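Per your request, structure below.
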């Protein structure tokens, strides 16, 4: 996989917190293969899936006693990637200096297991998940693997014009009214505030948007690959969805979704409904993205953009500047109008 500097260094979700690995598990992060196992402290560990001795995949081996033993010559590695034993050297034998492998820094936060990929120590803690543990809020989460590039997945999640067609009737309807989009960027990412006047005709719109209630809609791109979509209905109702993307390979992206809602007095009983709708919407996105990915692999990128694509074009520019080591987005904004 070609190095995408816009994607590292960064924290990525690689699983659920507290999960029992039960042996070994393969993990691919940005095209790099790792192997996960339970370390000596009882927590998950992840090291590069390559023995430094003769290049054999360590995932062929066995985990025991907090170490991972290579299937070829029995070299054993701990959760930090250090070689702890070379059987051929006998008791007390000292492994050579090069007998070590890269280890990911893993950290649990708010129910997710995060991995830091990048040189040096992690920059701060993994990001906070909206709604998780908040008083008076409901919260649900689910994950799915998409056979698509992370670039198109990010674009899809923050792209409003597709919703009336891919999710038509459930979430929006085909374009029928003008909306004003205030797009702005700064070093933290790209944000778009959306103003709409028309009363929604979709199923979710009718359930959530009450007559005379003002709707605030704000979408955010948060680096390296997260999109947060927020709706506020008046002063008491609110829904926030966060899609955190983990690029597993050039054409495979794991999407981890957190949905939080504050819809009194219905908040405590909505979890099954939110899970059902969330999985349905993500399934519809998955279908169109995987069709797109197959054509992109066949024909390459041949895109034609309009004013309705400004947000995504700014995100692309933001990521390209970051990859080049340039400032991560100067502060500026733009207002565009198009139909939703």
């Amino acid at each position: 996989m070609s190095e995408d500097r816009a994607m590292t260094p960064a924290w990525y979700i690689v699983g659920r917190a507290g999960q029992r690995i039960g042996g070994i598990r393969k993990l691919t992060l940005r095209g790099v293969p790792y192997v996960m196992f339970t370390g000596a402290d009882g927590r998950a560990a992840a090291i590069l899936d390559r023995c430094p001795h003769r290049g054999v995949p360590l995932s062929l081996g066995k985990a025991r006693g907090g170490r991972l033993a290579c299937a070829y010559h029995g070299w054993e590695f701990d959760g930090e990637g250090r070689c702890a034993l070379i059987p051929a050297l006998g008791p007390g034998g000292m492994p050579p200096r090069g007998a070590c492998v890269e280890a990911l820094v893993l950290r649990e936060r708010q129910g997710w297991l995060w991995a830091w990929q990048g040189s040096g120590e992690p920059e701060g803690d993994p990001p906070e998940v909206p709604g998780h543990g908040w008083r008076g809020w409901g919260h649900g989460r689910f994950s799915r693997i998409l056979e698509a590039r992370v670039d198109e997945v990010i674009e899809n999640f923050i792209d409003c014009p597709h919703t009336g067609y891919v999710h038509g009737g459930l979430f929006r309807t085909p374009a029928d009214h003008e909306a004003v989009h205030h797009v702005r960027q700064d070093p933290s990412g790209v944000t778009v505030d959306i103003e709409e006047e028309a009363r929604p005709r979709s199923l979710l719109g009718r359930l959530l948007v009450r007559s005379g209630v003002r709707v605030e809609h704000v979408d955010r791109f948060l680096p390296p690959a997260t999109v947060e979509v927020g709706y506020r209905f008046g002063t008491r109702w609110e829904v926030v969805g966060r899609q955190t993307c983990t690029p597993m390979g050039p054409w495979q992206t794991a999407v981890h979704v957190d949905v939080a809602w504050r819809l009194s007095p219905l908040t405590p009983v909505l979890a099954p409904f939110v899970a059902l709708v969330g999985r349905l919407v993500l399934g519809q996105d998955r279908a169109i993205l995987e069709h797109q990915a197959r054509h992109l692999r066949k024909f390459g990128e041949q895109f034609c953009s309009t004013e309705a694509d400004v947000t995504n074009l700014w995100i692309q520019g933001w990521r390209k500047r970051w990859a080049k080591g340039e400032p991560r987005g100067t502060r500026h904004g733009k207002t565009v109008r198009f139909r939703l």
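The longest strand covers residues 237-249.

Regards,
D.
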